[in-house]
Structure formats: C-alpha cells, structure tokens
C-alpha cells in the first residue's frame, strides 16, 4: 500500500477508531470529507496530498458519497 495508507492504518491500530473519527470530524456531521481528513492527518504529523486523501476515501467509501461515514 501507499505510505499514507500504512500510516493511517497504524493510527487506527493505536487509537480508538471512534475517538479518531470524532477528532477528525470537525463539523460534527457524522461524515469525514477530504478537507477534514487532510487537516486531521496533517495535525497528526502525517502530511499528505489531496490525491492521497482521495485514495484513502475511495478505499473506504462504502456508499460512494465521497465521504467516510461514522
């Protein structure tokens, strides 16, 4: 996988998934969009490109909404 994918997977192993989701969901919508994911990962010292964030979303977006739902 990509470095970002591996780093994100490591974060999920180290943190409670729901807690991490709530930390990244800055507008409390119950869904993570690309800007929220990118800002959150950068805040967690994982700088990433917009294309990398889109890859993460595409890999985990079950309903095709373009967001990650809680």
Question: Can you give a write-up of this model?
Answer:
The protein is mainly α. The protein has four helices and two strands; from the N terminus they run H-H-E-H-H-E. It has a two-stranded antiparallel sheet. Helix 3 packs across helix 4 (50-60). It is globular.
Which helices and strands appear, and what pairs or packs with what?
Blueprint: H1 3-14, H2 17-24, E1 31-32, H3 34-43, H4 50-60, E2 68-69
Antiparallel strand pairs: 1-2
Beta content comes to 5-15%
Q: Counting H and I runs of at least 4 residues, what is the number of helices?
A: 4
Distance between the termini: 23 Å
Number of strands: 2
Question: What's the overall average pLDDT, rounded?
Answer: 84
> Which sheet architecture does the biggest sheet show?
2 strands, antiparallel
What overall form do the CA principal axes indicate? Answer: globular
Q: Determine the fraction of residues in helical runs and give it as a percent range.
A: 55-70%
Radius of gyration of CA atoms, rounded to a whole number: 11 Å
* Helix and strand pattern: HHEHHE
Q: Biggest sheet: strands side by side, in what order?
A: 1-2
| Low-confidence blocks of residues | none
Q: What structural category arises from helix and sheet content?
A: mainly alpha
Defining traits:
70 residues; mainly alpha; 4 helices; 59% helix; 6% strand
Quick description:
The chain has helices at 3-14, 17-24, 34-43, 50-60; strands at 31-32, 68-69. By secondary structure, the protein is mainly alpha-helical.
